[in-house]
């Protein structure tokens, strides 16, 4: 089973090199990481997948990212419900990101069904559980709880990650399990989410780790 941290942000966006973050990922129990704006590679036995995040909030930008066809794991920052429905129906999109910043109706039962059918995963950034404090942190937890309820009902996938911008931000698999329990995910659900990435590609060339 592949165990992936989705997504990390090495230098220059973050302050640690890709090689150093790959080494830490291996020590922390991962065999794959999605590194935003870095080319596919491999260090210390850890597969590095290229990640691209579309932040512009327009379908023009979404379609442009898909047309590049360079094998990247493509995520789109969520917007309103109409935008999110269009995103999850776009072939070549793998992740819908940043739903913790949206209103509850931005991802309803219709969009949840579409995400399940189109094999688009909902990305949960666990850095938000550590970076936010007080009321802001509580809002993230509540939003993740709401998404978990929808996921259990409609069967779309989660893809979870540390959101690390430094080796100090990376989290072990055990820590990810503990963090996910704060909003009700079970250990088994967390491990499934850590193994989501290869299943997002219908005809994937991504290697699978068989144990």
Helix and strand arrangement:
Blueprint: E1 4-8, H1 18-27, E2 32-36, E3 41-43, E4 46-54, H2 59-67, E5 73-77, H3 81-88, E6 95-97, H4 109-118, E7 121-125, H5 127-131, H6 134-154, E8 158-161, H7 173-181, H8 187-194
Helix pairs in contact: 3-4
Short description:
It is built from 8 helices and 8 strands, in the order βαβββαβαβαβααβαα. By secondary structure, it is α/β, with parallel strands linked by helices. The longest helix has 21 residues, at 134-154.
Structural commentary:
The chain has helices at residues 18-27, 59-67, 81-88, 109-118, 127-131, 134-154, 173-181, 187-194; strands at residues 4-8, 32-36, 41-43, 46-54, 73-77, 95-97, 121-125, 158-161. It has 211 residues and is α/β, with parallel strands linked by helices. Strand 1, helix 1 and strand 2 form a beta-alpha-beta unit. Helix 3 packs parallel to helix 4 (109-118).
